[in-house]
Amino acid sequence: MITTATPETKTPTQEFIEYTEIFGTPNYKPLPVVISEAKGVWVKNPEGCKYLDMLSSYSALNHGHRHPAIIKALIDQAKKVTLVSRAFHSDQLGLFLKELSDLTGFGRSLPMNSGTEAVETAIKTARKWGYIKKGLPQGQAEIIVAANNFHGRTVTIVSFSTDEQYRKDFGPLTPGFKVVPFGDAEAIKSAITPNTVAFLVEPIQAEAGILMPPPGYFQKVREICTRNNVLFMLDEIQTGMGRTGKMFAFEHEGVRPDVLILGKALGGGAMPVSAVCASSEILGVYQPGDHGSTFGGNPLACAVARAAIRILKEENLVERSAQMGEYLMNKLRTLKSGYIKEIRGRGLLIGIELHAAAGGARRFCEALMHRGVLCKETHEHVIRLAPPLVITEKEIDWAFSRLKKVLGT
Ligand SMILES: *Cc1c(COP(=O)(O)O)cnc(C)c1O
User: Fold this and answer.
1) Rounded to the nearest whole angstrom, what is the distance from the C-alpha of residue 357 to the centroid of ligand 1?
2) Full domain range(s) for residue 321
């Protein structure tokens, strides 16, 4: 029984939030807005108020909400077959893997569902590769990661987080990881031992507050990994699929990783779809039964992901991301706000870092919400702007005028 408020005085929004707070688990602190409908860059609450989505579900909605071709692929496939498990083949899985290989240039992929699962899969891949190809003694494989990383929330992945809150109370943790500062290639060199199998890193640390690496960092990383026979594994779950103005963020750096991890927008904002992409030599270490997932690579997910890949190309969303990102960035740079410490980003992945004296980014996100713009604070002091790549100049102008009011000219 709910007895906390009189039903007739509650709006639908209040009611849905209350249900979530009473019956859910308090592991999130969402902005107090309920989204019950969405199309493109716009979302609507149950009372019919419209908001511009400047978060895109952390870049899972690069194509915008309910892109017609993605919804069509979803519905068409739902009428044929949705799940076969990997006990059998499906037409969609084969086509998806082929098209993903054409997109990434990697010979093989291993499909999973969530991004976290793909990172776990990459870790298992690197370890297995180390035992089979480098002949390491069992149980000794080491993986180097960067400080301030975000790769997901399983016990193994939080074991190498440097965010105390992610690890505390969740031990015992998984051993076999070494942390080096992000952006410091020399530190990787010193951390490598004969047992090192991989260096796992994000091209831009988005969850940490849109932290950019120094120029030339990834070229040095590539060199060090190659010289030491260590796999360079890039987590592009958030930066991939056009977000930064290139299909993949590694294209900005002029290097290719050995292992590419994709998720989020690969599912077109409609299905959880993730994948680990690498060469035949690397993913070829698996044998039947070594690893798997009931839903990984299911035909419904594959049909949606195929549409997601096709639309990025057909609608030139990668170029759009670069153009609209530049347009938004140039506007933001004109802001004369005493609150702003730094603005940084690439393509349509932009962080506005506020001075500590501004009192945290949360209240600005709440003020923006009241003016119809949805974005989210990232850590304490950063406002992340990551709208769907289909956003127009006019819509950016609309959002910018509100940002300008809230951040104070
Ligand atoms: C979101 C994200 C993940 C985790 O993906 P989920 O789908 O939430 O499991 C991992 N790495 C990066 C860089 C991410 O942004």
Assistant:
1) 30
2) 31-60+317-407
